[in-house]
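STRUCTURE:
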């Protein structure tokens, strides 16, 4: 009996010693004799799916975005070459240790410090109405530093991306400097464009554009400097100064336009773009209290100093050395000087099986636009938003429930016309989850959010688009409401994990464009429509074909939708998705990706993004990574839209030679043990608005 008791005490002592020596966020293999314990690759929790990076995924990555790509989360479309993260054709809110962040900040993460990635397709009210949230959890702070750098130039075009990040740690403090640049200069493009106008008397005019070339530039430098102080479980302070530049963002199309009324063909030149700076400052304080309580205060301010412009010129073809007179010559030039301020305060209280969160935020936008082409006319817009919310989460055995209510007050004021609107909008949300076990769960989620009118949608200064098309905003727009109900089944079986489900969406008063004739002018304005409704069916699997060697993941969605507005009722059905395959061995990673963009019906227009495919081969050697790849090795690049309006039916395709081979070199140097970059649990949103001088 004494021998048995001694053995039991020894086992408990070893277990206690093992638990105390493990880092709370460390997810790694532990060997005790001949027993190896490994965390599963995905754990399905009540409110998220948790992915743990494998040793292979970490070893084959040199930054956080590469690691995310190597995780191959099924619902995500991650392009390290293009620096994009999407899900179901929509944007993903990115967070690091709970704080809202950017793709650039994810790139600055060291793969070794990322202990898990939390994927939420039903985020709560504290995430500000996001459709999807991706949260990186990184290691606890220690001393050390790191230097990361990457260069990815194309071989046949002035295109590429470059970044460098430097961190220094000293005790509880960390200093970081980051710089990146997305380079796109004078890429050759062309446009296929045809349209038919129908006048109120029933007569029509068709215009068809034969492309004669064009060019695209979109160079975006981005840099920030930050200081953070963290004392674990006590105090966190962050100060960050950021600047985003639009150094050279312009598009030009040239074409020959033929008319159905028998008039002479017309040479067309259309140019538009913008240039400006977005400086911002963020201050963040997080204080822990006894009994698992936390108070968070976040303040931010940003400005925009910029210039947007557009030129639209129609002229008869050259018949001599004399330059022809322009038939239509439109030049729009807008200078913006806009400001945004925000403050948010959240209180969080945790229990063993529950969590209560309450918060309040205030956002202010002050916009000033000067129209140089209209004798310096000035337009002012003032926006104020106040938001309150409370949310409670509780776990009952295999069941868990999250329920909350938010309320948003929105106020607009237009100085020149002394007009304004204001509204109160409720934002209810609830989720019920049943967990069969850690590998299978069922989730029903209802969420809602509001969309406020933008500066371009409310600007009543008339903008001429071509010979007879104009655009003018609507100052009577109301805040739009959106509602979404999602049922999802998540599963994990040997070598296969993923989810499938159904999603229903409704926006009964969506803000959409509306076209109408005013004498001989075709006006594009905006309205609160009669609503958009859609229904989606989706499947997102991840398949481990050969363990640690070959893996595939993907997402496929079929969606049917209906849009109604003043004088129209339209429907659309289509499928979209992405597929990725990755082969890993001997330090080499061969990956391929295909994306079919989502076709979105909004107002009287169907728009689609990039249908794209990429092949990439990389090799890791010590602190270096070398890779080569090609963008669009197969097919033809296409991005465009189709207008279904009874007054203007048009279809346009932007095409370019996107078949770009590229090389990439990454360097990752570390010294000491790494300190966690301090990131916020909440993020006040002080984003400045901008004007749009874009054309048709």
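SEQUENCE:
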């Amino acid at each position: 009996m004494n021998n048995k008791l001694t053995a039991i005490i020894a086992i408990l002592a070893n277990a206690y010693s093992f638990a105390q020596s493990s880092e709370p966020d460390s997810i790694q293999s532990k060997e005790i004799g001949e027993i190896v314990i490994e965390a599963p690759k995905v754990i399905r929790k009540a409110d998220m799916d948790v992915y743990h990076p494998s040793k292979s995924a970490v070893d084959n990555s040199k930054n956080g975005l590469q690691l995310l790509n190597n995780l191959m989360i099924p619902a995500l479309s991650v392009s390290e070459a293009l620096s994009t993260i999407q899900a179901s054709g929509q944007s993903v809110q990115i967070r690091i240790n709970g704080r809202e962040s950017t793709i650039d900040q994810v790139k600055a993460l060291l793969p070794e410090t990322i202990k898990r990635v939390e994927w939420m397709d039903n985020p709560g009210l504290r995430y500000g109405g996001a459709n999807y949230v991706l949260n990186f959890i990184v290691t606890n702070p220690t001393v050390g530093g790191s230097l990361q750098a990457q260069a990815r130039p194309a071989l046949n075009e002035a295109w590429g991306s470059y970044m460098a990040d430097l961190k220094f740690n000293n005790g509880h403090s960390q200093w970081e400097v980051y710089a990146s640049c997305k380079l796109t200069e004078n890429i050759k493009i062309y446009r296929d464009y045809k349209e038919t106008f129908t006048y109120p008397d029933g007569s029509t005019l068709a215009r068809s554009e034969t492309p004669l070339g064009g060019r695209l530039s979109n160079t975006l430098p981005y840099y920030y400097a930050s200081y953070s102080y963290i004392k674990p479980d006590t105090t966190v302070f962050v100060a960050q100064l950021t600047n985003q530049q639009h150094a050279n963002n312009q598009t030009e199309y040239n074409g020959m336009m033929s008319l159905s009324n028998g008039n002479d063909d017309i040479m067309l030149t259309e140019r538009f773009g913008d240039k400006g700076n977005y400086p911002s400052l963020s201050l963040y304080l997080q204080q822990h209290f006894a009994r698992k309580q936390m108070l968070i205060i976040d303040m931010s301010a940003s400005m925009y100093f910029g210039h947007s412009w557009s030129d639209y010129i129609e002229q008869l073809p050259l018949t001599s050395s004399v330059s022809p007179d322009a038939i239509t010559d439109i030049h729009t030039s807008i200078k913006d000087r806009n400001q945004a301020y925000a403050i948010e305060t959240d209180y969080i209280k945790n229990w063993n099986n529950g969590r209560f969160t309450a918060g309040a935020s205030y956002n202010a936008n002050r916009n000033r636009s000067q129209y140089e082409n209209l004798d310096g006319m000035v337009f002012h817009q003032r926006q104020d938003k106040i938001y309150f919310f409370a949310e409670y989460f509780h776990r009952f055995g295999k069941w868990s429930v999250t329920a909350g209510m938010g309320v948003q007050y929105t106020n607009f004021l237009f100085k020149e016309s002394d007009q304004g609107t204001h509204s109160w909008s409720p934002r209810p949300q609830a989720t019920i989850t049943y967990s069969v076990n850690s590998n299978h769960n069922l989730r029903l989620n209802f969420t809602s959010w509001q969309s406020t009118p933008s500066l371009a949608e409310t600007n009543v200064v008339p903008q001429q688009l071509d010979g007879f098309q104009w655009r003018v905003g609507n100052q009577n727009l109301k805040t739009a409401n959106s509602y979404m109900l999602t049922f999802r089944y998540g599963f994990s079986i040997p070598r296969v994990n993923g989810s499938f489900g159904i999603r229903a969406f409704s926006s009964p008063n969506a803000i959409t464009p509306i076209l109408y004739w005013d004498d001989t002018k075709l006006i594009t304005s905006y309205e609160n429509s009669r609503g958009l409704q859609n229904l989606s069916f989706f499947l997102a699997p991840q398949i481990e074909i050969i363990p640690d060697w070959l893996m595939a993941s993907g997402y496929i969605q079929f969606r049917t939708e209906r849009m109604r507005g003043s004088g129209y009722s339209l429907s659309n059905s289509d499928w979209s998705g992405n597929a990725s395959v990755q082969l890993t061995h001997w330090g080499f990673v061969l990956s391929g990706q295909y994306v079919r963009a989502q076709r979105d019906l909004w107002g009287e227009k169907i728009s689609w993004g990039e249908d794209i495919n990429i092949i990439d081969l990389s090799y890791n050697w010590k602190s270096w990574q070398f890779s080569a790849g090609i963008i669009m090795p197969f097919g033809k690049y296409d991005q465009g839209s189709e207008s279904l309006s009874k007054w203007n039916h048009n279809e346009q395709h932007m095409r370019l030679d996107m078949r770009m081979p590229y090389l990439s070199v990454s360097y990752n140097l570390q010294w000491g043990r790494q300190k966690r970059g301090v990131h916020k649990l909440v993020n006040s949103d002080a984003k400045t608005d901008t004007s749009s001088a874009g054309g048709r």
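REMARK: The longest helix spans residues 2-21.
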